[in-house]
Write the structure tokens for this entry.
Amino acid sequence: MNLFNENKNKHCKDNCLCEVVKCLVNDCSSSTGPAGPTGPRGATGPTGPTGNCSCSCVSRGELVVNGGMEIVIDDKLTRWLFTNPDDIISKNSQGRVHSGIWSANMGDASTLSQTISNIEAGCFYELSFFARGEGAQVSLNANVIFITNSGNVLDGNIMVRSQDMTNSNRDFAYYRLITTQAPSWNYCN
């Protein structure tokens, strides 16, 4: 799993989708504005003013500890919390690993979770991972939940029904979500 932070223009108002897109694609350069419209008999109007972009657009990189699931001790992932530790085993056999050496093999009704500190209010986060099921009844549910002093805020969810889950031996599906802006409430640490 990868969790990334993209800073957003701190001075944005309600209508700032353009600035958000520039920040997400690291495009902080702006060109001059478009030329004015041609008058009924006149020449092209003057060139508009130079655009302004003040977002920092710096990714903080991987925030999930052991996000690649490569740090394993006694066939167990480290730095992750499990609801059913006996039903989550790290595997390194052929066909069970997308990249690297290890993968998490999860049984029925098992969950993995991790709390990420240092989340910045007003920033956007990305969660992405590869997954596959084994059998016809496997489904997937991945969430990004912001834990704040005012309560938990579910911000992103990927849900794949069992009939839609990739389950062939060597095929993995790629999943990705980008959150809305992280809430501006004080965060629990």
In short: The two ends are 21 Å apart (CA to CA). DSSP finds one helix and eleven strands in the chain.
